[in-house]
Amino acid sequence: MFQVVANSWALFLGLGLIMLGNGLQGSLLGLRASMEGFGVTATGLMMSGYYIGLLIGATMVPRFVSRVGHIRTFGAMASLASTSILVHVVFVDPWIWWGMRFITGFAYAGLFIVTESWLNDASENETRGQMLSFYMFVSLAGMASGQFLLNVASPLSYELFVMISVLVSIAVIPILLSVSKAPEFNTTE
User: Fold this and answer.
1) Would you list the domain boundaries of the chain?
2) How many helices (H) and strands (E) does the chain have?
3) Residue 89 burial class via C-beta count within 10 angstroms: exposed 0-12, middle 13-18, buried 19 and up
4) What's the pLDDT tens digit per position in 63-119?
C-alpha cells in the first residue's frame, strides 16, 4: 500500500492543494456574499451553481479525457478553476458569481474524474480500497484545512481570492513534472 501511495505522490499533493483552495472558496464566498448584502435566496442560488456545474462536468469531461488525455485535462480544469475564482473579485454580482460557481463545479468535476481514474489505474484490486480511502482522506483533510485559511486575510479584501487561485495553479506543477505515466483512457460502456 505504501509503495502505491508513494508512486502517486504528485497526484495526492496536487489534490491536497486543490482541496485546500476548494475548502477556502466555499466558506469565503458564503461569507463574502453576506458581507456584500446578497440575500439569503440569492446566496443559496449562487452557491448552487457549483453543484450544477459538477453534475454537467461529470457527464462532459470524460470526452475531454478521451480526446486529450489525463494530464492536459487536469491542467485545463485547474486553469479554469483558478481563473473563475478571480472573476469574483472583479464583478460583485450574484448572477456572475453563479456563473463562476458553475464553472468551478465543472472544473472540479474534471479534476475529480482525472484523479480518481488515475488512482484506479495505478492500484491493483488488492490495494484499490486503501488507495481510494487515502484519496478521500487527502480530499477531506484539504477541504477542512482550507477553511482555516480564512484567518489569513479579511474576506472583504482580494487576498483570499488570489490565494485560492495560487493554490489551484500550483497544484498542477507536481503532476506536470511527475515521471509517472498517465493512464490510458478507455471509454466506459
Assistant:
1) 8-177
2) 8, 0
3) middle
4) 998 899 888 898 999 999 999 999 999 999 999 999 999 999 999 999 999 888 888
Q: Per-residue pLDDT averaged across 4-21, rounded?
A: 84
Neighbours of 95 (CB within 10 A): 12
Contact 62, 116 (CB under 8 A): no
pTM of the model: 0.89
Concatenate the DSSP letters of all residues of 60-99 into one string: HHHHHHHHH-HHHHHHHHHHHHHHHHHHHHH---HHHHHH
How is residue 74 written as a grid cell?
A: 487536469
User: For 119-134, b where at least 16 C-beta lie within 10 A, e where not — what string?
Assistant: beebbeeebeeebeeb
8-177 has CATH 2.40.128.270 classification: no
Check whether 189 has a pLDDT greater than 80: no
Element (H, E) at 25: helix 9-35
Alpha carbon distance 10, 16 (integer Å)? 10
Question: How are the residues of the chain apportioned to helix, strand and coil, as percentages rounded to the nearest 5?
Answer: 80, 0, 20
Instruction: Fill in the amino acid letter for 17.
Output: L
pLDDT of residue 183: 64
Task: Identify the three-state secondary structure at position 157.
Answer: coil
